Amino acid sequence: MLWWKLLLMPALIGVVTWAGRRWGPGVIGWLVGLPIVGGPIILFLALEQGAGFAARAAQGTLVGLVALSAYSLVYAHTSQRTWWAPSLAGGWMAYFAVAALLPMLPTNLAFSAVAGFGALALTVRVFPRITIRDTPIIAPAGEILLRMAAATVLLLSITAAANRLGPQWSGIFTPFPVFASVLPAFTHRGAGGQAAAKQLRGILLGLYSFALFFVVVGAMVEVAGIPLTFSIAAASAIAMHAASLRAARR
Questions:
Q1: In whole angstroms, how large is the CA radius of gyration of the chain?
Q2: b/e code 69-107 from CB counts within 10 Å (16+ = b)
Q3: Core-most of 9, 107, 141, 200, by most CB within 10 Å?
């Protein structure tokens, strides 16, 4: 199973990087919103820790979107006034401040789903105004390797620490802004704050399908089993993702 973890992330990052070269920051952000990291994480947790653990982790992942939304909002607004490093630092501070409060929230799937979807919707509405159009972005080789390494390290870290973190914290850290840090920071440095904000907006719009994926996992995995649950979750996420593409390209 370790080899699957080591091979899966680089392959997925390669696809996303190719899309960025072809369609630009809005679309690459939208693609990153798919559960390409969170999905494998929760699948490996289900296989290694059991369906009950995965169901509770799915609830934690949904409320974890509140912290990711806070990160994205702070980075996007800060990026309009300064360079990438202060924007990234401010976003991370917002993420950890909000994440620390999340275990105090009710732990049930309905509340978690409302919190996750609500945070995404509210954050997109109060995002800074973006006026630039999508243009292709050529990522340097070093950035591509960094993306691959960061995603793989996150997958390995969360699945390895699952017994100590427990299902709630495993879930909360699943949407940790790995891509939402690496991609916008490099885009910000090369193309400016507006491009970085557009990429983050694309990520948030894409995360609706991410959230739906985890709602399905949380609701079904203990009843329907792992193969059927993850098949339905993946199909549901892909269908919602296709529906959100037009909004991501605006």
A1: 17
A2: bbbbbbbbbbbeeeebeebbebbbebbeebbeebeeeee
A3: 200
Tokens 């997925």 sit on residue: 12
Answer whether residue 72 shows pLDDT above 80: yes
Q: What are phi and psi of 79, to 5 degrees?
A: -65, -20
Q: How many residues comprise the chain?
A: 250
Q: Is 138 left (phi over 0), alpha (psi -120 to 50) or beta?
A: beta
> Over pLDDT 70: what percentage of the chain?
82
Lowest-confidence pick of 33-42, 149-158, 179-188, 233-242: 149-158
pTM over 0.90: no
Please list the alpha-helical segments (H only) found in the chain.
2-23, 25-32, 38-49, 51-79, 84-99, 109-125, 141-160, 162-173, 179-191, 193-224, 226-243, 245-248
Residue of 17 and 91 predicted with greater confidence: 91
- Which range has the top average pLDDT, 147-151, 166-170, 181-185, 210-214? 210-214
From residue 207, how far is each of 30, 131, 161 by CA, in Å? 8, 22, 24
- Of the candidates 205, 155, 156, which has an alpha carbon nearest to the alpha carbon of residue 175? 155
* Alpha carbons 95 and 114: distance in angstroms, whole number: 19
For residues 81 and 79, give the distance between their C-alpha atoms in angstroms, rounded to a whole number: 5
Cβ–Cβ under 8 Å, residues 133 and 25:
no
Alpha-carbon distance 130 to 173, whole Å?
29
